[in-house]
Protein backbone atom coordinates (compact mmCIF):
# COMPACT_ATOMS: atom_id res chain seq x y z
CA UNK A 1 0.00 0.00 0.00
CA UNK A 2 1.42 3.47 -0.82
CA UNK A 3 2.44 5.51 2.18
CA UNK A 4 -0.11 8.26 1.60
CA UNK A 5 -2.93 5.77 2.01
CA UNK A 6 -1.44 4.51 5.26
CA UNK A 7 -1.30 8.06 6.57
CA UNK A 8 -4.86 8.67 5.43
CA UNK A 9 -5.99 5.76 7.48
CA UNK A 10 -4.19 6.88 10.66
CA UNK A 11 -6.56 7.41 13.57
CA UNK A 12 -6.98 10.98 14.76
CA UNK A 13 -4.90 10.35 17.87
CA UNK A 14 -1.88 9.52 15.70
CA UNK A 15 -2.45 12.48 13.42
CA UNK A 16 0.66 14.70 13.49
CA UNK A 17 -0.97 17.68 11.83
CA UNK A 18 -0.90 20.92 13.80
CA UNK A 19 -4.28 22.11 15.02
CA UNK A 20 -3.90 25.62 13.71
CA UNK A 21 -2.12 27.10 10.71
CA UNK A 22 -1.56 30.85 10.70
CA UNK A 23 -1.15 32.11 7.15
CA UNK A 24 0.65 35.43 6.72
CA UNK A 25 0.95 37.04 3.28
CA UNK A 26 4.06 39.17 2.94
CA UNK A 27 5.53 41.69 0.59
CA UNK A 28 8.57 43.54 1.92
CA UNK A 29 7.99 42.74 5.57
CA UNK A 30 11.46 41.46 6.53
CA UNK A 31 11.69 43.74 9.55
CA UNK A 32 8.31 42.70 10.90
CA UNK A 33 8.87 38.95 10.59
CA UNK A 34 10.93 38.34 13.76
CA UNK A 35 8.60 40.48 15.89
CA UNK A 36 5.52 38.70 14.58
CA UNK A 37 7.05 35.28 15.22
CA UNK A 38 7.92 36.22 18.80
CA UNK A 39 4.42 37.55 19.46
CA UNK A 40 2.74 34.48 18.01
CA UNK A 41 5.02 32.25 20.02
CA UNK A 42 3.69 33.95 23.13
CA UNK A 43 0.06 34.16 22.11
CA UNK A 44 -0.19 30.55 20.96
CA UNK A 45 1.55 28.83 23.87
CA UNK A 46 -0.16 25.50 24.53
CA UNK A 47 -1.60 25.22 21.01
CA UNK A 48 -0.10 23.01 18.30
CA UNK A 49 0.39 25.51 15.47
CA UNK A 50 2.35 26.27 12.33
CA UNK A 51 3.07 29.54 10.63
CA UNK A 52 3.07 29.81 6.85
CA UNK A 53 4.47 32.92 5.24
CA UNK A 54 3.40 33.39 1.64
CA UNK A 55 5.93 35.74 0.12
CA UNK A 56 5.80 37.13 -3.40
CA UNK A 57 9.56 37.16 -3.81
CA UNK A 58 9.95 40.43 -1.86
CA UNK A 59 13.04 42.39 -2.90
CA UNK A 60 13.85 43.03 0.78
CA UNK A 61 14.51 39.31 1.30
CA UNK A 62 11.52 38.53 3.51
CA UNK A 63 11.52 34.86 2.48
CA UNK A 64 15.18 34.48 3.37
CA UNK A 65 14.56 36.10 6.74
CA UNK A 66 11.84 33.56 7.45
CA UNK A 67 14.14 30.69 6.51
CA UNK A 68 16.83 32.01 8.81
CA UNK A 69 14.45 32.01 11.77
CA UNK A 70 12.98 28.66 10.71
CA UNK A 71 16.42 27.08 11.34
CA UNK A 72 15.70 27.24 15.01
CA UNK A 73 11.92 27.37 14.96
CA UNK A 74 10.09 24.37 13.54
CA UNK A 75 6.73 26.18 13.47
CA UNK A 76 7.77 28.23 10.45
CA UNK A 77 7.38 27.59 6.74
CA UNK A 78 7.63 29.80 3.71
CA UNK A 79 5.93 29.57 0.36
CA UNK A 80 7.84 31.80 -2.03
CA UNK A 81 6.01 32.69 -5.22
CA UNK A 82 8.04 33.85 -8.19
CA UNK A 83 6.73 36.36 -10.74
CA UNK A 84 3.37 36.68 -8.99
CA UNK A 85 1.64 39.32 -6.89
CA UNK A 86 -1.66 39.38 -5.10
CA UNK A 87 -2.86 39.35 -1.54
CA UNK A 88 -5.95 37.19 -1.99
CA UNK A 89 -4.25 34.53 -4.05
CA UNK A 90 -1.36 34.47 -1.54
CA UNK A 91 -3.77 33.85 1.33
CA UNK A 92 -5.62 31.15 -0.58
CA UNK A 93 -2.47 29.31 -1.58
CA UNK A 94 -1.16 29.51 1.98
CA UNK A 95 -4.40 28.10 3.35
CA UNK A 96 -4.25 25.25 0.85
CA UNK A 97 -0.67 24.45 1.82
CA UNK A 98 -1.60 23.09 5.22
CA UNK A 99 -3.49 20.10 6.50
CA UNK A 100 -4.36 21.75 9.80
CA UNK A 101 -8.12 21.69 10.44
CA UNK A 102 -8.20 25.36 11.49
CA UNK A 103 -6.63 28.14 9.50
CA UNK A 104 -6.12 31.80 10.38
CA UNK A 105 -5.08 34.65 8.11
CA UNK A 106 -3.38 37.77 9.43
CA UNK A 107 -1.12 40.58 8.19
CA UNK A 108 2.61 40.60 8.84
CA UNK A 109 2.77 44.26 9.81
CA UNK A 110 1.53 43.73 13.39
CA UNK A 111 -1.68 45.68 12.78
CA UNK A 112 -3.80 42.68 13.77
CA UNK A 113 -4.08 41.62 17.38
CA UNK A 114 -2.58 38.13 17.69
CA UNK A 115 -3.99 37.96 21.22
CA UNK A 116 -7.38 37.19 19.64
CA UNK A 117 -6.24 33.92 18.05
CA UNK A 118 -6.75 31.56 21.02
CA UNK A 119 -10.30 32.84 21.54
CA UNK A 120 -11.05 32.45 17.82
CA UNK A 121 -9.86 28.87 17.98
CA UNK A 122 -11.82 28.13 21.12
CA UNK A 123 -15.03 29.44 19.54
CA UNK A 124 -14.54 27.41 16.36
CA UNK A 125 -13.94 24.24 18.35
CA UNK A 126 -16.75 24.64 20.83
CA UNK A 127 -19.54 26.27 18.84
CA UNK A 128 -21.26 25.52 15.54
CA UNK A 129 -19.31 28.14 13.61
CA UNK A 130 -17.49 28.14 10.25
CA UNK A 131 -15.62 31.35 10.68
CA UNK A 132 -14.54 33.91 13.28
CA UNK A 133 -13.67 37.40 12.08
CA UNK A 134 -11.50 39.98 13.83
CA UNK A 135 -13.59 43.12 13.48
CA UNK A 136 -12.87 46.83 13.77
CA UNK A 137 -16.52 47.75 13.50
CA UNK A 138 -18.25 45.86 16.30
CA UNK A 139 -18.45 47.47 19.68
CA UNK A 140 -15.05 47.36 21.35
CA UNK A 141 -13.23 47.40 17.99
CA UNK A 142 -11.36 50.37 16.55
CA UNK A 143 -9.66 51.48 13.37
CA UNK A 144 -6.91 53.26 15.28
CA UNK A 145 -4.98 56.11 13.68
CA UNK A 146 -6.20 56.49 10.10
CA UNK A 147 -6.22 59.61 8.00
CA UNK A 148 -9.63 60.80 6.80
CA UNK A 149 -9.18 59.63 3.24
CA UNK A 150 -8.30 56.11 4.31
CA UNK A 151 -11.14 55.99 6.83
CA UNK A 152 -13.78 57.12 4.33
CA UNK A 153 -12.38 54.82 1.65
CA UNK A 154 -12.75 51.94 4.06
CA UNK A 155 -16.31 52.94 4.99
CA UNK A 156 -17.39 53.12 1.35
CA UNK A 157 -15.80 49.78 0.53
CA UNK A 158 -17.44 48.27 3.61
CA UNK A 159 -20.90 49.45 2.59
CA UNK A 160 -20.54 48.19 -0.98
CA UNK A 161 -19.26 44.91 0.33
CA UNK A 162 -22.14 44.42 2.74
CA UNK A 163 -24.59 44.84 -0.14
CA UNK A 164 -22.82 42.17 -2.08
CA UNK A 165 -22.79 39.43 0.51
CA UNK A 166 -26.19 39.88 2.15
CA UNK A 167 -24.79 38.89 5.54
CA UNK A 168 -24.72 41.11 8.57
CA UNK A 169 -20.95 41.22 8.67
CA UNK A 170 -19.81 44.49 10.20
CA UNK A 171 -16.25 44.34 8.87
CA UNK A 172 -16.28 42.52 5.51
CA UNK A 173 -12.96 44.20 4.65
CA UNK A 174 -11.16 42.54 7.52
CA UNK A 175 -7.96 40.75 6.63
CA UNK A 176 -7.91 38.98 10.00
CA UNK A 177 -9.97 35.82 10.51
CA UNK A 178 -9.93 32.12 11.31
CA UNK A 179 -11.97 29.36 9.69
CA UNK A 180 -12.43 25.64 9.37
CA UNK A 181 -10.14 24.49 6.59
CA UNK A 182 -12.91 22.55 4.84
CA UNK A 183 -14.96 25.71 4.40
CA UNK A 184 -12.30 27.09 2.11
CA UNK A 185 -11.60 23.78 0.42
CA UNK A 186 -15.29 23.47 -0.44
CA UNK A 187 -15.54 26.68 -2.44
CA UNK A 188 -12.00 27.64 -3.39
CA UNK A 189 -12.47 26.79 -7.05
CA UNK A 190 -15.21 29.36 -7.47
CA UNK A 191 -13.42 32.20 -5.71
CA UNK A 192 -12.23 35.10 -7.82
CA UNK A 193 -8.93 35.46 -5.90
CA UNK A 194 -8.20 38.92 -7.30
CA UNK A 195 -7.33 41.89 -5.17
CA UNK A 196 -7.38 42.34 -1.44
CA UNK A 197 -10.80 41.25 -0.30
CA UNK A 198 -10.53 37.60 0.45
CA UNK A 199 -13.17 37.55 3.17
CA UNK A 200 -15.80 39.09 0.91
CA UNK A 201 -14.84 36.68 -1.81
CA UNK A 202 -15.35 33.80 0.60
CA UNK A 203 -18.77 35.03 1.75
CA UNK A 204 -19.91 35.76 -1.78
CA UNK A 205 -18.78 32.39 -3.09
CA UNK A 206 -19.76 30.01 -0.31
CA UNK A 207 -22.92 28.10 -1.18
CA UNK A 208 -25.34 28.83 1.62
CA UNK A 209 -24.80 31.23 4.52
CA UNK A 210 -21.62 31.00 6.60
CA UNK A 211 -22.00 30.66 10.35
CA UNK A 212 -19.77 33.38 11.72
CA UNK A 213 -18.98 35.48 14.77
CA UNK A 214 -17.15 38.81 14.92
CA UNK A 215 -14.70 39.61 17.71
CA UNK A 216 -13.65 43.21 18.30
CA UNK A 217 -10.03 44.33 18.17
CA UNK A 218 -8.13 47.54 17.74
CA UNK A 219 -6.41 47.93 14.35
CA UNK A 220 -2.88 48.96 15.36
CA UNK A 221 -0.62 51.32 13.43
CA UNK A 222 1.86 49.63 11.10
CA UNK A 223 5.25 49.02 12.75
CA UNK A 224 7.71 49.01 9.86
CA UNK A 225 7.54 49.17 6.07
CA UNK A 226 4.69 50.53 3.97
CA UNK A 227 1.08 49.71 3.17
CA UNK A 228 0.51 48.29 -0.31
CA UNK A 229 -3.07 49.45 -0.40
CA UNK A 230 -3.22 52.01 -3.19
CA UNK A 231 -5.60 53.10 -5.93
CA UNK A 232 -4.89 49.97 -7.93
CA UNK A 233 -6.24 47.99 -4.98
CA UNK A 234 -9.46 50.01 -4.99
CA UNK A 235 -9.82 49.33 -8.69
CA UNK A 236 -9.35 45.61 -8.15
CA UNK A 237 -11.98 45.77 -5.47
CA UNK A 238 -14.48 47.33 -7.86
CA UNK A 239 -13.64 44.65 -10.38
CA UNK A 240 -14.31 41.96 -7.84
CA UNK A 241 -17.71 43.46 -7.05
CA UNK A 242 -18.58 43.60 -10.76
CA UNK A 243 -17.32 40.07 -11.20
CA UNK A 244 -19.51 38.73 -8.40
CA UNK A 245 -22.43 40.66 -9.77
CA UNK A 246 -22.25 39.35 -13.34
CA UNK A 247 -21.11 35.85 -12.42
CA UNK A 248 -18.05 33.75 -13.17
CA UNK A 249 -18.75 33.23 -16.90
CA UNK A 250 -16.98 36.44 -17.91
CA UNK A 251 -13.43 36.78 -16.54
CA UNK A 252 -12.66 39.85 -14.42
CA UNK A 253 -9.74 40.72 -16.64
CA UNK A 254 -12.01 40.88 -19.66
CA UNK A 255 -14.26 43.33 -17.83
CA UNK A 256 -11.29 45.51 -16.97
CA UNK A 257 -10.00 45.23 -20.52
CA UNK A 258 -13.38 46.29 -21.94
CA UNK A 259 -13.75 49.24 -19.57
CA UNK A 260 -10.30 50.44 -20.57
CA UNK A 261 -11.21 49.84 -24.22
CA UNK A 262 -14.19 52.14 -23.74
CA UNK A 263 -11.93 54.81 -22.27
CA UNK A 264 -9.79 54.39 -25.40
CA UNK A 265 -12.73 55.47 -27.54
CA UNK A 266 -12.85 58.77 -25.65
CA UNK A 267 -9.10 59.24 -26.04
CA UNK A 268 -9.42 58.50 -29.74
CA UNK A 269 -12.16 61.05 -30.23
CA UNK A 270 -10.28 63.70 -28.33
CA UNK A 271 -7.06 63.23 -30.30
CA UNK A 272 -8.92 63.10 -33.59
CA UNK A 273 -10.68 66.33 -32.75
CA UNK A 274 -7.38 67.98 -31.83
CA UNK A 275 -5.62 66.83 -35.02
CA UNK A 276 -8.42 67.09 -37.56
CA UNK A 277 -10.44 70.01 -36.27
CA UNK A 278 -7.85 72.12 -34.50
CA UNK A 279 -4.54 71.34 -36.20
CA UNK A 280 -6.14 70.88 -39.63
CA UNK A 281 -4.63 67.49 -40.48
CA UNK A 282 -6.29 65.28 -43.08
CA UNK A 283 -8.89 62.86 -41.70
CA UNK A 284 -6.71 59.87 -42.51
CA UNK A 285 -3.68 61.26 -40.67
CA UNK A 286 -5.84 62.38 -37.74
CA UNK A 287 -7.56 59.03 -37.52
CA UNK A 288 -4.23 57.16 -37.63
CA UNK A 289 -2.64 59.29 -34.93
CA UNK A 290 -5.77 59.00 -32.79
CA UNK A 291 -5.82 55.21 -33.13
CA UNK A 292 -2.16 54.97 -32.15
CA UNK A 293 -2.55 57.23 -29.14
CA UNK A 294 -5.67 55.37 -28.00
CA UNK A 295 -3.96 51.99 -28.36
CA UNK A 296 -0.96 53.28 -26.44
CA UNK A 297 -3.09 54.62 -23.62
CA UNK A 298 -5.04 51.34 -23.56
CA UNK A 299 -1.80 49.42 -23.39
CA UNK A 300 -0.44 51.35 -20.44
CA UNK A 301 -3.73 51.31 -18.55
CA UNK A 302 -4.08 47.57 -19.04
CA UNK A 303 -0.51 47.07 -17.93
CA UNK A 304 -1.22 49.11 -14.82
CA UNK A 305 -4.68 47.82 -13.93
CA UNK A 306 -5.76 44.70 -15.80
CA UNK A 307 -2.42 43.00 -15.44
CA UNK A 308 -1.17 44.65 -12.25
CA UNK A 309 -0.02 41.24 -11.03
CA UNK A 310 2.18 40.61 -14.06
CA UNK A 311 3.14 44.15 -15.06
CA UNK A 312 5.67 44.52 -17.88
CA UNK A 313 8.70 46.68 -17.13
CA UNK A 314 11.86 47.89 -18.90
CA UNK A 315 12.42 46.46 -22.38
CA UNK A 316 9.44 44.17 -21.98
CA UNK A 317 7.30 47.29 -22.19
CA UNK A 318 8.47 47.97 -25.74
CA UNK A 319 7.90 44.38 -26.81
CA UNK A 320 4.51 44.40 -25.11
CA UNK A 321 3.49 47.66 -26.75
CA UNK A 322 4.45 46.41 -30.22
CA UNK A 323 2.51 43.18 -29.81
CA UNK A 324 -0.46 45.08 -28.35
CA UNK A 325 -0.62 47.50 -31.28
CA UNK A 326 -0.23 44.65 -33.78
CA UNK A 327 -2.98 42.60 -32.14
CA UNK A 328 -5.35 45.55 -31.84
CA UNK A 329 -4.81 46.59 -35.46
CA UNK A 330 -5.94 43.15 -36.60
CA UNK A 331 -8.79 43.44 -34.08
CA UNK A 332 -9.85 46.73 -35.66
CA UNK A 333 -9.87 45.13 -39.12
CA UNK A 334 -11.99 42.26 -37.80
CA UNK A 335 -14.30 44.76 -36.12
CA UNK A 336 -14.86 46.77 -39.30
CA UNK A 337 -15.06 43.66 -41.49
CA UNK A 338 -17.72 41.93 -39.40
CA UNK A 339 -19.72 45.09 -38.83
CA UNK A 340 -19.92 45.98 -42.52
CA UNK A 341 -20.69 42.41 -43.49
CA UNK A 342 -23.59 42.33 -41.01
CA UNK A 343 -24.73 45.77 -42.08
CA UNK A 344 -24.91 44.69 -45.72
CA UNK A 345 -26.89 41.62 -44.76
CA UNK A 346 -29.40 43.23 -42.33
CA UNK A 347 -28.81 46.97 -42.30
CA UNK A 348 -29.36 47.28 -38.52
CA UNK A 349 -26.53 49.72 -38.06
CA UNK A 350 -26.40 49.77 -34.23
CA UNK A 351 -26.44 45.99 -33.92
CA UNK A 352 -23.85 45.59 -36.68
CA UNK A 353 -21.55 48.07 -34.99
CA UNK A 354 -21.96 46.41 -31.58
CA UNK A 355 -21.26 42.96 -33.02
CA UNK A 356 -18.12 44.32 -34.69
CA UNK A 357 -16.98 45.91 -31.43
CA UNK A 358 -17.62 42.70 -29.47
CA UNK A 359 -15.67 40.54 -31.91
CA UNK A 360 -12.82 43.08 -31.95
CA UNK A 361 -12.75 43.28 -28.15
CA UNK A 362 -12.73 39.52 -27.64
CA UNK A 363 -10.00 39.13 -30.24
CA UNK A 364 -7.86 41.88 -28.70
CA UNK A 365 -8.32 40.45 -25.25
CA UNK A 366 -7.59 36.86 -26.19
CA UNK A 367 -4.54 37.62 -28.31
CA UNK A 368 -2.92 40.13 -25.94
CA UNK A 369 -3.54 37.82 -22.98
CA UNK A 370 -1.35 35.26 -24.69
CA UNK A 371 1.24 37.38 -26.52
CA UNK A 372 1.52 40.65 -24.61
CA UNK A 373 1.14 39.61 -20.98
CA UNK A 374 2.73 36.20 -21.06
CA UNK A 375 2.76 34.17 -17.89
CA UNK A 376 6.29 34.19 -16.46
CA UNK A 377 8.15 30.97 -17.17
CA UNK A 378 8.50 30.05 -13.52
CA UNK A 379 4.76 30.28 -12.75
N1 LIG B 1 2.17 37.77 -0.73
C1 LIG B 1 1.71 39.03 -0.81
N2 LIG B 1 1.51 39.56 -2.06
N3 LIG B 1 1.46 39.74 0.30
C2 LIG B 1 1.01 41.00 0.16
C3 LIG B 1 0.77 41.61 -1.09
C4 LIG B 1 1.05 40.84 -2.26
O1 LIG B 1 0.88 41.27 -3.40
N4 LIG B 1 0.31 42.87 -0.87
C5 LIG B 1 0.27 43.03 0.46
N5 LIG B 1 0.70 41.92 1.10
C6 LIG B 1 0.79 41.66 2.55
C7 LIG B 1 1.55 42.73 3.31
O2 LIG B 1 2.92 42.45 3.38
C8 LIG B 1 0.88 42.63 4.67
O3 LIG B 1 1.41 41.59 5.45
C9 LIG B 1 -0.57 42.28 4.34
O4 LIG B 1 -0.53 41.69 3.05
C10 LIG B 1 -1.49 43.50 4.32
O5 LIG B 1 -0.97 44.47 3.45
P1 LIG B 1 -0.95 46.02 3.82
O6 LIG B 1 -0.34 46.72 2.67
O7 LIG B 1 -0.39 46.23 5.17
O8 LIG B 1 -2.50 46.30 3.82
P2 LIG B 1 -3.27 47.36 4.67
O9 LIG B 1 -2.83 47.41 6.09
O10 LIG B 1 -3.29 48.63 3.92
O11 LIG B 1 -4.73 46.70 4.59
C11 LIG B 1 -5.17 45.87 5.63
O12 LIG B 1 -6.36 46.37 6.07
C12 LIG B 1 -7.42 46.24 5.16
C13 LIG B 1 -8.64 46.81 5.75
O13 LIG B 1 -8.68 48.15 5.58
C14 LIG B 1 -5.30 44.41 5.19
O14 LIG B 1 -5.54 43.61 6.33
C15 LIG B 1 -6.43 44.20 4.24
O15 LIG B 1 -6.62 42.79 4.06
C16 LIG B 1 -7.65 44.79 4.86
O16 LIG B 1 -8.73 44.66 3.98
MN1 LIG C 1 -1.22 46.80 6.96
How would you explain this protein's 3D organization?
The protein has helices at residues 3-8, 32-43, 62-70, 87-96, 117-126, 148-165, 181-187, 198-205, 231-246, 252-278, 283-306, 315-346, 349-371, and strands at 20-26, 49-55, 76-80, 102-105, 131-135, 177-180, 212-216. The protein has 379 residues and is α/β, with parallel strands linked by helices. Strand 1 (20-26), helix 2 and strand 2 (49-55) form a beta-alpha-beta unit. Helix 9 (231-246) crosses helix 10 (252-278) and helix 11 (283-306) crosses helix 12. The protein is elongated.
Please name the defining characteristics of this protein.
2 domains; 13 helices; transmembrane helix; binds guanosine-5'-diphosphate-alpha-D-mannose; elongated; alpha/beta; Spore Coat Polysaccharide Biosynthesis Protein SpsA, Chain A; Glyco_trans_2-like; dolichyl-phosphate beta-D-mannosyltransferase activity; 7-stranded mixed sheet; Nucleotide-diphossugar_trans; 379 residues; binds manganese (II) ion
